[in-house]
Amino acid sequence: MNCVYTTLAMNSELPYRRKQYLVDRGYQLRFVTRVFVVVLIVAVVMMLLVFGQIPITDTIVARYAASEWRSRVYAVKFLLSLTVAAAAVPMLAVVHHATGGFYWVFMILAGLAAVVTALAFAMPSRRLAPAAAE
Asked: Largest Cα–Cα distance in the chain?
């Protein structure tokens, strides 16, 4: 590895010498570019998953909600989404401040994801037949 000794005059009588390593700028650029490409690909996949979830939840509501209640269910879904999203950041900040790290923040999020997954598996596999009119 290339190194250069630099002299910094801290005192006119005692010069200070230290090693400075010269790093290949091309290597740095290639590394940063590769990392950027990986981060960009992960970000695109995450955004596709996040925005792909929206029509899935709308399809679930359309499939399982009765037609006369569908608009109310969509309204409640929207209200809950907005409320939870607005409350999530302050609640996570409180947990992070109380515990001093991100471990419990991620454990709480993992627990909530497990609950949502369990509730998704508890949904009926097909739409229930409407009750017969008397």
From this structure: 107
The angle formed by the CA atoms of residues 91, 92 and 94, to the nearest 5 degrees, is 65
Cα dihedral across residues 42, 78, 56, 116: positive or negative = positive
At 82 the pLDDT is 93
User: pLDDT tier at 131 (50, 70, 90 boundaries)?
Assistant: low
Integer Cα distance of 10 and 16 in angstroms: 7
Cα end-to-end span (Å), the chain: 89
Q: What is the pLDDT of residue 107?
A: 92
Query: Predicted confidence band at 124 (pLDDT cuts at 50, 70, 90)?
Result: confident
In whole angstroms, give the CA distance from residue 82 to residue 77.
9
Contact 47, 57 (CB under 8 A): no
Q: Tokens for 4? A: 């250069």
Q: 92: which residues sit within 8 A by CB, 6+ positions away?
A: 105
Confidence (pTM): 0.53
Q: Which of helix, strand or coil describes residue 65?
A: coil
